[in-house]
Design brief:
Chain A: It catalyses: L-arabinose(out) + ATP + H2O = L-arabinose(in) + ADP + phosphate + H(+); D-xylose(out) + ATP + H2O = D-xylose(in) + ADP + phosphate + H(+). Chain A: Residues 258-278 are annotated as: Disordered. The structure holds two protein chains of two kinds. Chain A is of the alpha+beta class. Chain A is built from nine helices and 21 strands. In chain A, helix 2 (92-103) packs parallel to helix 4 and helix 3 crosses helix 4 (137-150). Chain B is an all-alpha fold. Chain B is flat. Classes of the chains: A alpha+beta, B mainly alpha. Chain A binds chain B through residues 50-52, 72-74, 77-79, 81-89, 98-100, 102-103, 147, 151, and chain B through 182, 184-185, 187-195, 198, 202-203, 206-207, 209.
């Protein structure tokens, strides 16, 4: 069992605080992704886990053992780097076996057996006699993965392993990593700045900013119920629209619109308070968050009772599968993901409706979310839906 | 000169708004002539030396004297056998090899310590190593001479090699190269539990092959061309090196019989080992000194 526990982890480089008090428990066999903007401390956290950096404060446990001051080689973790870190003068096979031979823990037969196994798993048998120079980026990363898996480590630590690959290969390798993890079921910590990678690969995703954890959740929960503005804006592309509003009588009031805030399940708010809006107080300044795909151009035929919002289109960006409109609502800029091929031109004013189940309110000061129009279900109920995604 | 002209031309074109692609530069006959002139200026003295080494007396007074003579075999035999120039060359070779190998060993360890280890005041130590570059070698001759005598090393190969084994230049070049090796490679080795010696032998040195060869060539040529220090510290003919030995080929100078042809034969011989090395290893040599362009 390799449960990894981080307690109050701190790392400072001189005056710079890279990691500022992280508490995290990584379950055995879990694929955990740490995502965040550059400089948020995600790589440092990974390097602390590997033992490549020493902690300033806090504690790291692996499988119940305190490894805070243990040498990297004695932690039994394998790391995969963005630049593959293959030894350029060694063949694929030697790259894979060099570390094992150095540690002296394996017999030659054992090494041969494991290399053959790893080569089968990763389909790299024909790369074993080539040097990294003669391999493509994807092939190199596969050999680097091979080097990591032959040692049968307690945990894989991956530092943006796909960032150097081109877009197509990245998608392919992503699927391969997911497959590899389901085969090996080794605890994996994966650092990336790419939210798509985070969402697709992670069983749970940690969003970090400024050396702190913003939220840890399953990808869909992270997307549907961001705990704060940072997560709301970081996860999702194009980013969630943030519109300053006043909250009054269960309505969000903006200079150009006034919409009701439904209680749970997207139903219009009744007098009984739903759990989602328990903390709404009248007259509160807040930020209304609506994702671009939750805003629709209103259709006069379907006569729903939802209020509409007027938005002036500034720029239109046809994305193929959708049409992204950069608009202004009053003085606030806002993106709308509309149906493709809509005959809309810049300068036009469009009437927009929204999905009442997908409204979020954030505190104007702290950025903490205090309202989601849909009730968050318990984790047990979320799990089956995760499998189908 | 040619580059300067072309550069000026490119600048002018750029100012006029023409892109480099629009302007073509033909290699005109004039360009080649200029290049040949430059090559000629460099090669001329060496060519004269080679020509003179084939003549009987080797006194050049007119252009006609610059035709090859027929005494080549005779002159080279005399220098190598009668004047024992082969012996001097052998001494030079031994001295140069010891210096090169010694420098490499010391510098690799030093650079490794500077780059990969946490040593207190590491930067200061490195600065001090660089500082030694500021001190011209001849400044050290007098105390060094004293030291060699005290150690009883004068007139031995130790005296002409050991003082040259530490090299700030080599440490510096190796340090820069080690720093250019991705840290992830070093960290992978760390995570795999690869020991420092194993790391050096199987990762660092193979990855530094080009630089090591390049530095070795430079160091070899530098060592091979040592003149002043061997002249001071070696006083037996049997242990003397080629650069100093050249002087012994002059023959009966007092009698006005300076045999230029022998001196030039010796010079040509002395020129050969570095030249051969340069030709054989020109590729790693160029790579070493174009690190910044990578």
């Amino acid at each position: 069992m390799t449960t990894v526990t981080l307690q109050n982890l701190h790392k400072e480089f001189g005056d710079v605080v890279a990691v500022n008090g992280i508490d995290l428990e990584i379950n055995h066999g879990e694929f955990l992704v740490i995502v965040g903007p550059s400089g948020c401390g995600k790589s440092t956290t990974l390097r602390l886990l590997a033992g490549l950096e020493s902690t300033t404060d806090g504690r790291i446990e692996m499988g119940g053992r305190d490894v805070t001051t243990v040498e990297p080689k004695d932690r039994n973790v394998a790391m995969v780097f963005q630049n593959y870190a293959l030894y350029p003068h060694m063949t694929g096979r030697r790259n894979i076996t060099f570390g094992m031979k150095s540690s002296g823990d394996f017999t030659d037969e054992e090494i041969d057996r494991r290399v053959t196994e790893a080569a089968d798993t990763l389909d790299i048998a024909d790369l074993l006699d080539r040097k990294p120079d003669a391999m493509s980026g994807g092939e190199r990363q596969r050999v680097a993965l091979g080097r990591a898996i032959v040692r049968d480590p307690d945990a894989f630590l991956m530092d943006e392993p796909l960032s150097n690959l081109d877009a197509k290969l990245r998608i392919q390798m992503r699927a391969e990593l997911a497959r590899l993890h389901s085969t090996l079921e080794t605890t994996t910590v994966y650092v990336t700045h790419d939210q798509t990678e985070a969402m697709t690969l992670g069983e749970r995703v940690v969003v970090m900013n400024d050396g702190q954890i913003m939220q840890v959740d399953e990808p869909q929960v992270l997307y549907d119920f961001p705990e704060n503005r940072f997560v709301a804006e970081f996860i999702g592309d194009p980013a969630m629209n943030m519109i300053p509003v006043d909250v009054k009588d269960g309505r969000a009031i903006h200079e150009t619109f006034d919409i009701p805030l439904p209680s749970g399940n997207g139903q219009p708010k009744s007098n009984q308070n739903g759990a989602g809006d328990a903390q709404i107080t009248d007259g509160q300044r807040a930020i209304l968050g609506i994702r671009p795909e939750d805003l629709h151009l209103s259709d006069p035929q379907t006569n729903d009772e939802l209020p509409t919002i007027d938005a002036e289109v500034n720029v239109r960006e046809p994305l193929g599968d959708s049409l992204l409109l950069h608009c202004s609502i009053g003085n606030t800029s806002c993106n709308i993901q509309a149906e493709p091929r809509m005959p809309i031109t810049a300068g036009e004013t469009v009437s927009v409706t929204y999905d009442p189940a997908r409204l979020h309110l954030f505190d104007a000061e702290t950025g903490e979310a205090f309202y989601h129009s849909e009730l968050r279900q318990s984790t047990d109920e979320q799990a089956p839906s995760k499998l189908t995604t | 000169m040619v580059e300067l002209l072309q550069y000026a031309k490119r600048r002018a074109d750029a100012l006029r708004g023409n892109s480099a692609a629009e302007t073509t530069y033909d290699a005109k006959p004039g360009t080649h002539l200029q290049l040949w002139l430059l090559v000629f200026a460099v090669v001329f003295p060496i060519a004269v030396a080679v020509i003179v080494s084939t003549k009987q007396t080797g006194v050049v007074t007119s252009l006609g004297d610059l035709l090859p003579g027929s005494y080549a075999v005779e002159n080279y035999r005399e220098a190598l056998v009668d004047y024992q120039f082969g012996r001097f060359m052998w001494n030079s070779l031994a001295m140069s090899l010891v210096i090169v190998v010694g420098k490499l060993v010391v510098s690799v360890f030093a650079a490794m310590a500077i780059v990969y280890y946490r040593v207190p005041y590491k930067d200061l130590v490195f600065l001090f190593i660089l500082f030694t570059l500021l001190l011209p070698v001849p400044v050290r001759f007098i105390p060094l001479f004293q030291l060699m005598n005290d150690l009883g090393w004068s007139n031995t190969i130790l005296a002409i090699t050991v003082p040259y084994i530490a090299s700030a230049t080599t440490v510096f070049i190796l340090r820069q190269h080690f720093l250019s090796i991705p840290t992830s490679i070093v960290e992978t080795a760390k995570l795999d539990g690869v020991g420092p010696l194993r790391f050096m032998l199987f990762v660092l040195l193979p990855m530094s092959k080009g630089v090591l060869v390049g530095v070795s060539i430079i160091m070899f040529v530098y060592a091979w061309n040592q003149y002043l220090w061997p002249l001071i510290i070696i006083d037996s003919e049997a242990n003397q090196v080629a650069q100093v030995g050249l002087q012994l080929l002059q023959g009966d100078v007092q009698g006005g019989q300076l045999s230029w042809s022998l001196v030039m034969a010796g010079s040509t011989l002395t020129l050969l080992p570095p030249l051969l090395l340069m030709i054989v290893f020109r590729k790693p040599l160029l790579e070493t000194f174009s690190i910044q362009q990578k």
